[in-house]
Amino acid sequence: MKMKKVMALVATLTMAFSITACGSSGSKAEEQTPSTTTTETAATDGQSDNTAASGDSLQPEEGASLVVWESKEERSFTDEIAKQFTEKYNVPVKIEEVAATDQVTKLSQDGPSGLAADIVMFPHDNLGRAAAAGLLLANDAFKDETVKNNTEASIQGVTYDGVLYGYPRAAETYALYYNKSLVKEAPKTFDDVIAFGKTFTDKAKKKYGIMWETGNMYFNYPFIATTGGYIFGKDGTDKDDIGLNSEGAVEGLKTYVQLKEILPVKSGDISPDIKRSLFNAGDVAMDINGPWELAGYKQALGDNLGVAPIPTIGGKAAISFSGIKAWYVNSFTQYPNAAQLFANFASSKDAQLLLNTKVGSIPTNKEALESDQIKNDPYISAFAEQTKNSQPMPSIPEMGNVWSPVNAALPEIWDNNADPKAAMDKAAQQIKDLNNGATK
């Protein structure tokens, strides 16, 4: 254990020199002074240290107390779940507000010195750099039940280099919003979308059957992945196996090209603000977007708002990108048993349903997804259904080399009628060069 922590410290110090290159949130984390709230508890008659590998026999250490980092937006959930945890395990919990996207940066700075939280929470695309720096304990004690209880996509998202680290608690993806006053029922296929668009789209009047960010790879991943394309091989872990220009990817992009007929707009002229305005006004009938637009769209359209899974592509359920939020245990914690118990407790079926009640999140727990609470919500259930056919974004550091080349290739195809195979061949080569250390 001591050797692991020495190695983790070395990796962390190395990471600190390059952390600003890993994301734009670093400066915020350095400047942030977390606000704190302590759950009112008394830690009496603590249990002795037990390092058993099985979650069934794991007990909190004697005198254990925990610090948890949580985002401001989801603090209401963690306040409540912390109280429940303390009631069950008699372990005090203090909650500090730290933005989810800042937590890995802050953990790298404060973990080795013992100033970081025992349990942290961040999106899975930050996992690679945290795990590679030795900042996290593997999810060993609760591995079997975590894998059994959660969706395959969420498990993939919180696994790095073959090791399960996370305790999934929520998923995020995009789906199809539609205006029920214009579209009687959600289209099942993109052929249906095109058929409707031919009757509705009128460029002169700026009315379009469907709109989405056609130059953004995030929203266009279904046209790459559904028919067999991918970014990196081996579930997003093999940087040398690039599948963006594979036969499957090119096949799916045929549907992407066909949609230009009903959305004759340059990719650069489609922004979130423009699209939102047109959809709210009834000038766009359908929009591919995420749950972050739900509140505004409900306010604008009321009962006329519908949400459905993304239409099928090539006869197959559309595969979207997903992001997985999860708990992780700090490798430098003084109380690893108590920390693992909290991470597992706060990611259970009941905890995920509480999180949904508090902030409208989409569960990853399979039983929670099948619950009446989720199935009876017409909006959340649609996003939940789409998550079942989603793939988590690769979490390896090389993912940062993908966005610019693909976001340049898509407008070439959309705006300039470039051959999809040639455009994606170029993007794949650029990514390969970047992965191998080329500066341009």
From TrEMBL:
Write the signal peptide boundaries.
1-23
- Is Repeat tagged as a keyword? no
GO biological process, alphabetically ordered: maltodextrin transmembrane transport; maltose transport
Region Disordered: what ranges? 23-63
InterPro entries according to UniProt: Maltose/Cyclodextrin-bd (IPR006060), SBP (IPR006059)
Instruction: Indicate where this protein resides in the cell.
Output: Cell membrane
Major place of residence: membrane
The GO terms describing molecular function are: carbohydrate transmembrane transporter activity; maltose binding
What is the superkingdom listed in this entry's lineage?
A: Bacteria
Q: Which Gene3D superfamilies match?
A: Periplasmic binding protein-like II (3.40.190.10)
Biased amino acid composition, Polar residues = 45-57
What keywords are annotated for this sequence in UniProt?
A: Cell membrane, Lipoprotein, Membrane, Signal, Sugar transport, Transport
PROSITE patterns in the record: PROKAR_LIPOPROTEIN (PS51257)
**How does this chain sit within the bilayer?**
Lipid-anchor
Q: Which Pfam families match?
A: SBP_bac_8
- Quote a single Gene Ontology cellular component term: ATP-binding cassette (ABC) transporter complex, substrate-binding subunit-containing
Q: Which family does it belong to?
A: Belongs to the bacterial solute-binding protein 1 family.
Q: What is this protein called?
A: Maltodextrin-binding protein
